[in-house]
Input
Amino acid sequence: MVKARRNRRGMRLAIRDLPLAWGDAERAGDRERTGIGDRTLFILVVALTLFGIVMVYSASAVLAAERYGTQYYFLARQTAWAMIALLALFVVMRVDYHLYQHPRLLALLVIGTLLLLVAVFFFPAVNGAHRWIRWGSLSFQPSELARFVLIVFLAAHLDRRIPAGIKRAELTFLPCALVAGAMMGLVALEPDLGMALSLGLILLVMFFIVRVPLRHQAMLGVGAIPLLVWLIVHVDWRWERILTYFDPWQDPRGSGFQAIQSLIALGSGGITGVGFAQGKQKLFFLPELHTDFIFAHIGEELGWMGTSAVLLAFGFLLWRGMRIAGRAPDTFGMLLGSGIVAAIVAQALVHMSVAAGLFPVKGTPLPLISYGGSSLLITMVEIGVLLNIAHHARPDDV
Output
């Protein structure tokens, strides 16, 4: 069992005693720290974001010119979102991560997120799904926020319950399952089954870390697996995607089109790619190339070397992030950091697996690289929290 760890001074700090923002930690004189908790991770994140802007432009220029009359439409929007996201990262990484343990703030985050997940149903559907809250030309996807809020809630709740006994279902399992289940249910109704499953994966990862008894975790499977099977089998287009996954060539111009074109993009890139901005799939062959299939576009234009670099970058992010989580000064920081890293890397792996034909087609953005403001903003906020956790480790630990 994971034992509740104390901070480096041997005791937990009360919320009211914590430096909550804007460099108070340095002025408090607890220990000398750098402004950025982990410069290596920060540089990696900025590099991936800049790389994403370039690749989004390359993938979307033709579509933007056709649809909006200028090839810079998606480039301008992604650049603007990147600037906002970087600003959010700088703000969040200066806020002491212990603040998120405060019961009132935690309740506000959970209730606010649930209300946003309900609010999406009052906005017009896009491609048959209610996933966005729109205000003019701006849009926000609350399910992205739900991922972050669920991680914060689980980390705070599990940290609080460890001393009382992690094996007590009424204290540990049921509250976590209820909050996660409510979010998963609302997201699945949008419908976005993939994101709902991602939330469930986060729950299982956090339970695994603190070693919640397997019998409690099995209870999730008893209820979730039959429901999942029903949601797939009784929804025609989902079942069609499963069948297409096994044999996309049975309908190459229909349900298998995206999977086949993605494989063609990756295969045509070879070792070094066809060259930047020289790809052919963006000529209206592969839909959603700048969002759901940006990895395939990277493979076509930059080849095996480009896709390998992206894979290695996320592998390095995984190592660096788990290193930060493992050296957090308390259990809450460890759980919070682990959940953030697991969520980001798992999403990246799903995106790359879809592009490579290893997973059924699912609209999942590649973190920090794909076009999309909500995904980029929330990912940057999560990275900011991770950097703040590193900021609180001992100087010789970072």
Summary: Residues 32-397 form one domain.
